[in-house]
Amino acid sequence: MTNINQLTTNNIKIPSKDLEILKTNFSHCFNKKGNFDFEKFKKELSKNEDIDFSNESYGMDWLGKSYARLLANDEATTLLKENKEWNKKPENKNSDNLLIKGDNLEVLKHLSNAYNEKIKMIYIDPPYNTGGDGFVYQDDRKFSVEELSKLAGIDNEKAKRILDFTQSKSNSHSAWLTFMYPRLYIAKQLLKDDGVIFVSIDDNEVAQLRILMDEIFGEENFVEIFIWDKKNSAKGVPTKNMVVNIHEYILCYSKSTNSKLFGEERTKDTFSNPDNDERGIWRLSNIKSTLENSEKFSIIDPKTGNKFTNYWAFSKESLKKMIEENRIVFPKELGGLPKQKEFFNEFKNANMPIKSNLGLFHAQDTYEEAVDEMLGPKVFPYRKPTNLIKKIVSQAGEDSEVIILDFFAGSGTTGDAVMQLNVEDDGNRKYILVQLPEVIDSQKNKTAYDFVKNELKIENPTIFDITKERLVRAGNKIKEDNNKLKEPKDLSSIDFGFKIFETISNNKGNWGDYILEAENFNSQTKLFDEKKLSKEDLEILLITWKTYDGFSLTKNLKEIDLDGYKGCYLDNKLYLIDKGFETKNLKKLLEEIDINKEFNPAIIIVFGYNFQSKILREIADNVKNYANKKHIDIDFIIRY
Ligand SMILES: C[S@@+](CC[C@H](N)C(=O)[O-])C[C@H]1O[C@@H](n2cnc3c(N)ncnc32)[C@H](O)[C@@H]1O
Q1: Hey, which bits of 255-407 come out as E strands?
Q2: Ligand 1 mean position to 242 CA, how many Å?
Q3: Nearest CA, atom 3, ligand 1
Q4: Closest by alpha carbon to 319, among 288, 344, 279, 345?
Q5: pLDDT band at 562 (very low <50, low <70, confident <90, very high)
C-alpha cells in the first residue's frame, strides 16, 4: 500500500503526456533526479538510420512563447462547480452534453485527464484579432520578473518584457499567439488518435495560425485549409487594390495519420435503373482513355455489329468480359458510343470526397433568419452560419463515441448543429461547449444586453447567458418543426438537454483560507472554522477531484453508507470528504470491502483538512493490514 500526500485544492496539474511516454520508453535517459538527458536520447535515436538529425531547424518564435509554454503546463487555478438545479431537471439529468462556463484554458486543464484522447472533433472559432473584435490579451496570473524568469528558463530582461506585454492588454500577433498556443496545445491531448481539429480564421492571423498549428500538431498532420464564402457578390468596400474579401478559412489538422474525414454522402440523383438490372441503380461512365500507354483496339456492339476504335481505359480481355457481363452499353442517344454501367452499390467508398472550397454559407439564410427570430436580430450577429458548422461536424461520424468540443462557443452554433444532425441521421453525437462569462457592455452591445437583462431577467448579462439560451431555444425549435411535419419522427432518443458546470476561483470565498502549504499544515491544531466549508464547497471539491482523477463530468459517483458516514465511490476509487469519520466508520468500511462484491476500492482518497491525524493514521494502518492479509493493493491518498 502506498500512502501519498497531495496538495490539490489549489493544484490541479495537467499531466505531461510527452514526458510520460518518454519515461515509459526511455527510462534510461532520465538521471537519478528525474531530469531528462537529451544528448543521451539523441545518441540513442541516432542508432536508427531512419532519423535524420541534419534537418534545418525551422519554426516560429515570438515574444511570449516561453510564457505560453509555461501556461500550457502550469496548474489550473480554479475548481469545478456543478449547476445542481439545472442538471437535476428532467431534460438534463441523463444528458451527456455539456456547457461549461469559464476561461477555456482553465476548463481545458480540468478536462485534460477525464477527456484525454476522448474527443473526436474540435471545432473552434477564436477571436480573429481583427483589431475591432475586442481581442486583448488578458491574464490574471501575477508572476514577478524573478519567478517568471526561473519558471520559463529565460533571463530577467526577457521576463520583464513578457510581463509588460501580458499586462498591457495587447492585441499584437505575439499576444494572440501567446493566447492560442496553450489552448491548442492542451486541445491536442484531448483528441482521439483518429480525431481532427478545425479552426476558423481570417486573413489577419491565418499565416500565424498555420505555422503555430504545424508546430503543435506536426506538419504531417495538416489536412487542409478549407475556405468558405460569406457572400456571393463583391458588394462591400474594396481595398485600394480593388479587392473585396468574401471568404474565410477553416484550418484542419488531424491528431495522427489515422484520421479520416467522413466526406460527403454520394447522392443517388444521377443513378437510375432503366433496364431493371439486378445489381441495382447505375449511371453511365466514360471508358475512353487519354493516357499515353493505354491500348488502342476495336470493340464491337454485339447487337448492332457497330465497331468503335479508340484508346480504352481497360484491356482487351477486361472489356470482353465486361461486355459479356452486361457492364458495357451502347446508348443510341449517344450515337451508340460504348459506356460503362457504374453501379451505385459497387463504389468502394460509399462517400465522395469533400471539396476544399466549401462554398457559400449565407449569414441570412432561412435558418439564420430563424435564429435571429429566436434570439433577436442583433443579439449575436457574428455567429457562424449553422449550415457551415453542420457540414464541418458531419465530418466526424455519428455514433455515441463522437464527442464534439467547441471551447469558443459564442452563441452555441456548434451545439445547435450537433442536435440538428442527430435528428437528421438518428445520430448520437455529444457536444461539450465552453464559454467565458464575458460581460456584455450595455452601451456597445445594447440589443444583447437588453435581451439578457429584460427577457432572460439576468442581473449582470454575459455572453454565457446567450449560449445557454440558444441551446434551449434551438432544441425547442427542432422539436416544434418536427411536430409540424406530416409524419413527425420519434425524437425520444435524441439528447436535447445539457449539463452545466462552471469554474470558480480557488482563492476566493471560503477557499481563500485553504491555500496552505502541506508541510506547514499541522492537523493537530484546528486550523479552520467548523462552519467555513459548506456542504456545497465540499461538493465542488469532489467534482474537481473526480474529474482530475479521470471521471467524465457526466458520470456521477455513487454514495456508500459506512455506518452513518457518507463515502462516494465509483470504479475502484473511494472518496472520504466529509468531517466526522470515526473508528466505527472505518470498521464498516473494511467490512464492506470484505462482503460487498460491488465495492472494491483500489484507491482511497481523503480530504486531509477534515480528518484528525489520529484517524488518518488509523485508516492507513488498518487498510494496510487488511490489504496485506488479502494480498490486494489499496492506495491511501491524503489530499489537501
Ligand atoms: C467568434 S466568437 C464564436 C462564435 C460562435 N462560433 C458562434 O457561431 O456563435 C468567440 C467566442 O469566444 C469567447 N471567448 C473568448 N475568449 C475566451 C476564453 N478565454 N474562454 C472561453 N471563451 C472565450 C467569446 O466570448 C466569444 O463568444
Answers
A1: 264-265, 282-285, 296-300, 307-311, 328-329, 339-343, 351-352, 357-360, 403-406
A2: 32
A3: 410
A4: 288
A5: very high
Decide if 501 contacts 92 (C-beta within 8 A).
no
Banded pLDDT at 582 (limits 50, 70, 90): very high
pLDDT at 292 over 80: no
The per-residue pLDDT for range 413-428, each reduced to its tens digit, is: 999 999 999 999 999 9
Give, using CA atoms, the residue closest to atom 12 of ligand 1: 408
Instruction: Identify the DSSP state of 212.
Output: H
pLDDT at 31: 83
Q: Which residue CA neighbors atom 14 of ligand 1 most closely?
A: 408
Which residue's C-alpha comes closest to atom 24 of ligand 1?
Answer: 410
Cell numbers found for residue 43: 545518441
Protein residues with CB under 6 Å of any ligand 1 atom = 103-104, 125, 127, 380, 382-384, 408, 410-411, 413, 434-436, 438, 463
Name the closest-CA residue to atom 17, ligand 1. 436
CA angle (456 as vertex; 454, 462 as ends), nearest 5: 95
* pLDDT of res. 515: 45
CA 125 to ligand 1 centroid distance, Å: 7
Report pTM: 0.88
Q: Which residue in 390, 423, 388, 393 sits closest to 405, CA to CA?
A: 393
Query: What CATH number has the domain spanning 69-136+171-265+352-502?
Result: 3.40.50.150
Contact between 619 and 601 (Cβ < 8 Å): no
Measured in Å, residue 91 CA sits from the centre of ligand 1 at 26
- Summarize pLDDT for 145-170 with one digit per residue, the tens: 999 999 888 999 999 999 988 888 88
The best mutation among 406, 438, 441, 470 to test binding of ligand 1, ranked by most ligand atoms within 8 Å of the C-beta, falls on: 438
pLDDT at 468: 98
- Determine the atom of ligand 1 nearest the C-alpha atom of 410: 27
Domains of the chain, by residue range, sit at: 69-136+171-265+352-502, 282-346
317/523 Cα distance (integer angstroms): 88
Report phi then psi at 198, rounded to 5: -120, 130
Whole-number pLDDT of residue 14: 63
Q: Among 178, 201, 408, say which to mutate for ligand 1: greatest number of ligand atoms within 8 Å of CB.
A: 408
**Cα 102 to middle of ligand 1, angstroms:** 11
| Average pLDDT value for residue range 315-332 | 94
Please give the backbone phi and psi of residue 277, each rounded to the nearest 5 degrees, phi first. -65, 130
**Closest protein CA for atom 7 of ligand 1:** 383
What one-letter code names the amino acid at 323? Answer: I
